[in-house]
């Protein structure tokens, strides 16, 4: 038996929409963002950048970006 062929509209509809984890509290998609902070070295006086990844959604956005 042959497989049912999907139309172009079906293929597009499958690929659209939010991707990733959904926050259980607010229901929004959780995004991974990179936070870069400038840190001054007290010995040499030079600046370094500390990079970290954080998962952010609507309910913890202000805490992560503040």
Helix and strand topology:
Elements: H1 8-15, E1 31-40, E2 47-56, H2 61-65
Antiparallel strand pairs: 1-2
How would you characterize this protein structure?
This protein is an alpha+beta fold and 66 residues long. It has a domain of 45 residues. The protein is 20% helix and 30% strand. The chain contains 2 helices and 2 strands, in the order H-E-E-H. It has a two-stranded antiparallel sheet with strand order 1-2. Strand 1 and strand 2 form a beta hairpin.
Search tags:
20% helix, alpha+beta, elongated, two-stranded antiparallel sheet, 66 residues, 2 strands, 2 helices
In short:
The chain has a domain at 21-65.
Helix and strand sequence: HEEH
Strand order of the largest sheet: 1-2
**Overall helicity:** 10-25%
Query: In what range is the share of β-strand residues?
Result: 25-35%
Count the DSSP helices: 2
Q: Unreliable segments (pLDDT under 50, ≥5 consecutive)?
A: none
Largest sheet report: 2 strands, antiparallel
Quaternary structure classification: single chain
**What would you report as the Rg, rounded to the nearest angstrom?**
21 Å
Give the termini distance in whole angstroms: 58 Å
Q: How many beta-strand segments?
A: 2
Q: What is the global morphology?
A: elongated
Mean pLDDT: 86
Q: Structural class, judged by helices and strands?
A: alpha+beta
């Amino acid at each position: 038996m042959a497989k049912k062929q999907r139309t172009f509209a079906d293929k597009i509809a499958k690929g659209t929409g939010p991707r990733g984890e959904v926050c259980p509290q607010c229901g929004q998609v959780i995004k991974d963002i990179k936070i870069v902070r400038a840190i001054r070295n007290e010995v040499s006086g030079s600046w370094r950048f500390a990079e970290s990844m954080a998962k952010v959604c609507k309910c913890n956005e202000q805490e992560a970006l503040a």
